[in-house]
Amino acid sequence: MALLLSLTLLACPAPAIAQAAGQEPAVTAETPAPTAQELLAQVDMPQWSLRELNAWRDYLLPTQEEAAFEALPWRNTFAQGLQDADAAGRPLLLWVMNGHPLGCT
Amino acid sequence: MAGRVSVFSNPQVLAAAQAFVPAADEVWRLQRGGDAECQFFQRAVNHGQLITDNGTRQGIYVMSPSGKVLSRVNSLKAERVLTMMEEGLAAWEALPDEERHLPKEIDIQGEERWEDSRPSKGLLLERIVRDLPADGTHQGERASKWNRDTVWFSQEEVASILAAAKEGRTKEGGWGDVPEHLAHRLASFSLVDNVYGQCIPFDDGDLLRVELQIRETIQDGSMRGYEWRGSTLAEEDGHWVLGENLWTPKKLHPHAMETVLRGRAHYDTRTEVFLGVEMVALGRRSGFTELNSRRFRPEPGGIGFLFRLDQRQWAPAPTFLSLYDAPWVKKPQSGRELRRD
Hints:
Helix content of chain B: 10-25%
Radius of gyration of chain A: 28 Å
Shape of chain B: globular
Oligomer: heterodimer
Distance between the termini of chain B: 26 Å
Number of domains of chain B: 2
Number of helices of chain B: 7
Largest interface: A-B, 65 and 95 residues
Order of helices and strands of chain A: HHHHHE
Radius of gyration of chain B: 22 Å
Largest sheet of chain B: 8 strands, antiparallel
Number of strands of chain A: 1
Order of helices and strands of chain B: HHEHHEEHEEHEHEEEEE
Number of helices of chain A: 5
Structural class of chain B: alpha+beta
Number of strands of chain B: 11
Strand order of the largest sheet of chain B: 5-4-11-10-9-8-7-6
Largest sheet of chain A: none
Structural class of chain A: mainly alpha
């Protein structure tokens, strides 16, 4: 029986195999890929009102742990860090990324 | 971005950092720029030579003010960074005093930066972005990745927004339309998926719907209260029209963003200062761009944005400030900052 099913599946084109397995049809050259907007439609838009503004704000804000890095007195530029390190007689701890680490990186 | 939590929120790293002067900066300008600050960085991290290759110098360094790299690592593991800091501190303690100091003959000041365009009396917003929980509610499990950016409006632009609210008084519901180019600024440059790191903006041709309105809800002496509402829909249209810059993609991948915005603001007409702004945009996103790791998790999902007053004394310039259609944005004189070789 298993062999028969395997042979049957081998004889089927890919979308039919997917349907036989209870899945969405596979994308083929004849089936254009969904557009970005069509993919959007797979997700429900959040339903919310202005009354929930504070709750959503609190969800989106960094937690205390996520914002702990802000406890350090970061100098915002390399030059300022060098000057302050020199004045303080301490080494510089420099964190550099593509995009400023204190902004979008 | 992940290092904010995995490294610099670690209590041991925070404690060890007390022995240093911490500084953060954007590496692309430092490793490609031509001013004194950039050249000092390049010689420090590149064995005394200016950098001519495209290899990234991202990372965490311990450096003497004289420009000697004492240790370095590019890691998201706190333990590795801690070890690097300990090694750097030991090297610093072994460094003779004459090799520690910033050379007096070098003027380390950089040239103009994009941050110099920061409006003095405008509206400066911090923007936080995070994926939404699978159940679509704010009680759901908080997604661990988040990112930050800034949005800037000049005093004149603020005036035009408030004028829209005033004009809205005569309309049904009291809603006035925020000037289109300012609403587009949000939709193109801020309502973008950089949860997993830097991304590319939407251009005007990608914007399929941008509605942003404001209405006045409170008048109390010089205090004014406002509400925001709006919606956006943007989809990459396959054409890159934003010129050659840092983010010019090698390939445009299909991606889209749809949001609904709501918020409040309070403004003092006497001091002409916003006392509070909170605006949330919730929606859905699909696809990815090439500059971050969303490509490994491209399935569509919910996304949320928070805009609030940026109270920081100094904040990095908005990522896409150079693309703002605004006369108050001053391009740094060197002109090298945002140009590929």
